[in-house]
Specification:
The chain is an all-alpha fold. α2 runs antiparallel to α3. The two termini are 24 Å apart. It has helices at residues 3-11, 13-36, 41-61, 65-76, 82-110, 118-157, 174-190, 192-211, 219-238.
Length: 247
């Protein structure tokens, strides 16, 4: 990554948040790995401290954003495509409620309001974060099927998106499988936005699921998933073709 992109990334609130998120979840994976190996307790505690500080820092960066996200949902309700309109609007409304709960948790951490039930607000936040991710994944699945339909239409006419002649693929041999893999790879490269968004949402899905007790993943696994998701989010910020729109 060149210096100009680092400056651009750091100049954006979303960029700083994603960088902090990447380090936060990486720290979680590292301290759990150290504890599992029963190695360097002092270093494990240091990574826990880093994770806590960055988590609090990110809550501060996001403070007040629930209002911005809510108002952005008022624009998506007029999007012409019904599926995208419904999934994107519900995702934004859910994200707004998630951030509202997140604000209360930040206030509790600062000690400004000591009577806040952080466990209840944490559960509330995870529920609406999960709903937002599910809506995003529904939109991703819709986009994937739409791309496959376009690909099939191109195959029937013998013309791909790039203009090359193709024929319908049948996996009857290793050669056919290799051709299918190459076509799939080309499809992903041609639509990085959908691939990156799907990976990001699939990784994020298990974080609130574990927070709500539906899955029981270790902090190390959650840390790795969060780090992958954060890296995907950073890529979408730095590379315009990797950002799914409308967002």
């Amino acid at each position: 990554m060149n210096l100009d992109k680092w400056v651009l990334l750091n100049s954006q609130t979303a960029g700083r948040d994603k960088l902090a998120r990447l380090v936060q979840y990486t720290s979680r994976a590292l301290w759990d790995s150290l504890e599992s190996a029963d190695a360097s307790p002092a270093l494990a505690d240091s990574f826990k401290t880093v994770e806590y500080i960055l988590s609090t820092f990110r809550k501060l960066l996001r403070f007040g954003r629930c209002v911005d996200i809510f108002y952005s949902s008022l624009r998506t309700i007029h999007y012409p495509d019904l599926t995208i309109r419904v999934t994107l609007t519900l995702s934004k409304l859910s994200q707004s409620l998630f951030l509202l709960a997140d604000h209360f948790m930040w206030l509790a951490r600062t000690g400004l309001f000591k009577d806040i039930n952080t466990k209840r607000w944490g559960k509330f936040a995870n529920k609406y974060w999960l709903l937002s991710i599910i809506m995003n994944l529904c939109r991703d699945v819709y986009e994937i099927f739409h791309l496959l339909d376009l690909h099939k239409a191109g195959a029937k006419s013998g013309i791909t998106r790039a203009g090359a002649n193709i024929s319908p693929l049948r996996v009857n041999s290793l050669r056919d499988f290799n051709r299918l893999a190459l076509h799939s790879y080309a499809l992903v490269l041609g639509h990085k936005d959908v691939a990156v968004d799907t990976i990001k949402n699939l990784c994020d899905l298990f974080i609130p699921l574990t927070g709500l007790g539906y899955t029981k993943l270790s902090p190390r696994t959650i840390g790795l998933l969060g780090a992958i998701s954060s890296a995907a989010g950073l890529w979408a910020l730095l590379e315009p073709t990797a950002k799914l729109t409308p967002a």
